[in-house]
UniProtKB/TrEMBL annotation:
Pfam families noted in UniProt: DUF707 (PF05212)
Residue segments, region Disordered: 265-286
TM spans (from-to): 100-117
Record has Glycosyltransferase as a keyword: no
Name of the protein: Glycosyltransferase family 92 protein
Record's keyword terms, sorted: Membrane, Transmembrane, Transmembrane helix
InterPro entries registered for this protein in UniProt: DUF707
Length: 327
């Protein structure tokens, strides 16, 4: 029985919830027995309407629950789409400044999404969903089929995964995410950095935070690892393997058969007008510099917390002794 519910009859306790929309009256459409439920969520801004519309349309047509986090506080601007009333919208006022999701030019997801996900995607809220897609807004899905993707993930036993990136059209930060002629790949070999004896991320056991997909159990673990006060989360991708529900070299992978395009559009840093940006002046406040400085500081804080927790927990045994970001 959950703590503080002892005064309730046990049969009345509902331990979990979900994000299913409920009508004000009439019968509620219930899922059929054994029908799978999956969640697609993205942090979005109105400047990416075209790409977001394609993603939402595709995932809704595959019977996903869809949740949009609006980092620019612009919710009414999406009413033009027929699907608008069929998705869950979350907007947090004053969460558009650079301290949360503004002007970072590496991954919109890492900065924007984690603040929302930590607060609105508790594992008990999304417990009914078999898989949780937590994607950035600048993903092209013209060639992507969500249900075929899940079929591959299930058959391959992947707990944490991502679709491969179209090499010719995508912004690629780590070579492991590039699409190869395969169904799934779990590692890469690269002279000088990813030799055959290297089992560390990002050579294996690694996916990028731009378009990750988590199983229910993996997401529960990841949610607990996200620090409530560290919003940038640099380095979190190197720790995801601890949540892979087993050997990260087997339970994490990149799906080549269902690939996407990572456009890498820096919408969070675009100006509202077309005036060219002024040359950088070190004497002036520069949000890009400040975001990178804050990200680096929080990265160091996260590593210090990890090291302290590992030292103090005498019962915990680190299954990986080759993590390059451990120290």
């Amino acid at each position: 029985m959950p703590q503080r519910s002892e005064t309730l009859p046990q049969g009345i306790i509902q331990k979990t919830s979900n994000l299913q929309m409920r009508p004000l009256w009439g019968n509620v459409a219930m899922r059929k027995p054994n029908e799978k439920a999956n969640l697609f969520a993205a942090a979005v801004g109105v400047k990416q309407k075209v790409l977001v519309n394609k993603m939402v349309t595709k995932f809704l047509s595959s019977s996903f629950t869809v949740m949009l986090f609006h980092y620019d506080d612009a919710v009414d601007e999406w009413r033009e789409f027929d699907w608008n009333s069929n998705v869950v919208h979350v907007s947090a006022h004053n969460q558009t400044k650079w301290q949360v999701c503004f002007l970072l030019f590496v991954s919109n997801f890492v900065v924007c999404f984690l603040w929302f996900a930590k607060r609105f995607m508790h594992p008990d809220i999304v417990a009914e969903y078999d898989y949780v897609f937590l994607w950035d807004e600048d993903i092209g899905v013209d060639t992507f089929d969500p249900l075929r993707y899940l079929s591959i993930v299930s058959s391959e036993g992947l707990e944490i995964s991502q679709p491969a990136l179209d090499v010719g059209k995508s912004e690629i930060h780590q070579q492991i995410t590039a699409r190869i002629n395969s169904i799934v790949h779990r590692r890469i070999y690269k002279p000088g950095s990813c030799e055959r004896n290297n089992t560390s991320p990002p050579c294996t056991g690694w996916v990028e935070m731009m378009a990750p997909v988590f199983s229910r159990d993996a997401w529960r673990c990841v949610w607990y690892m996200i620090q409530n006060d560290l919003i940038h989360a640099w380095g979190l991708d190197y720790r995801l393997g601890y949540c892979a529900q087993g050997d990260r070299t087997q339970k994490m992978g990149v799906v080549d058969a269902e690939y996407v395009v990572h456009h890498g559009k820096p919408t969070l840093g675009e100006s509202k007008d077309s005036t060219p940006p002024r040359p950088f002046n070190p004497r002036e406040f520069n949000p890009r510099v400040e975001v990178r400085r804050q990200s680096w500081n929080e990265y160091k804080t996260f590593k210090q917390r990890w090291a302290k927790a590992a030292e103090e927990d005498k019962c915990w045994i680190d299954p990986y002794n080759d993590d390059p970001h451990r120290k």
